[in-house]
Amino acid sequence: TQLLEQSPQFLSIQEGENLTVYCNSSSVFSSLQWYRQEPGEGPVLLVTVVTGGEVKKLKRLTFQFGDARKDSSLHITAAQPGDTGLYLCAGGSQGNLIFGKGTKLSVKP
Amino acid sequence: DTGVSQNPRHKITKRGQNVTFRCDPISEHNRLYWYRQTLGQGPEFLTYFQNEAQLEKSRLLSDRFSAERPKGSFSTLEIQRTEQGDSAMYLCASSTGHINEKLFFGSGTQLSVL
To answer: What are φ and ψ of residue A83, in 5° steps?
Structure first.
């Protein structure tokens, strides 16, 4: 059974700080996706990483896929209150995605 | 707005009652998925459709659960004889079905079984 473990589970930081959250598995994934979810809403896709070692940037967010395609990280530079939310990683293909439990991020002004 | 639409947004029911949720996907998307999310957990896959065909069902989908997509457009998820453990957010998503596809999620239906 493929599992995705995310850490930390909770993170509370001040505006302007940098942070990194992690998504790890013992299984190889053909691709990993990162989503952000706000309370009472569905997840919204941020990025898909496909190639081992790949790095993608989305404004202040940097996503990295591990060389062995078993892990991924999300780094946020100069976090803002608008970054607050649940960050989920998901792996698999053809829609039967396996999600991690997420990292709940709170950025205080 | 042409995003994924789910109705109702909230449903409160008594244990033992039947409930039905509706999902309207993005119109040109031929794949439709149902997920369930409980507090503190990520979404868990339940089932998906390619047009009107239900192609995969999770072991989480007990025989009290049934999903349909009769004309390949909207879908319904019915839960019969609800139990308190069914309380969760039920999320619908749609996609084009291409490899490494992007899933578009609706806002979900929050079910509370009393």
So the answer is: -80, -10
Structure token digits, residue A21: 């959250």
Is B69:B82 a contact under the CB 8 Å cutoff? Answer: no
Instruction: Answer yes or no: do A90 and B42 touch at CB < 8 A.
Output: yes
Token code pair at residue B22: 């509706």
Contact criterion met (CB < 8 Å) for A99 and B42: yes
Q: Which of B100, B104, B109, B110 to mutate to test the interface with A (most CBs of A within 10 A)?
A: B100
Other C-beta atoms within 10 Å of A21: how many?
22
Give the pair of three-digit tokens for residue A11: 């993170």
User: Is residue B84 helix, strand or coil?
Assistant: helix
A5-41 per-position pLDDT tens digit: 999 999 999 999 999 999 999 999 988 999 999 998 9
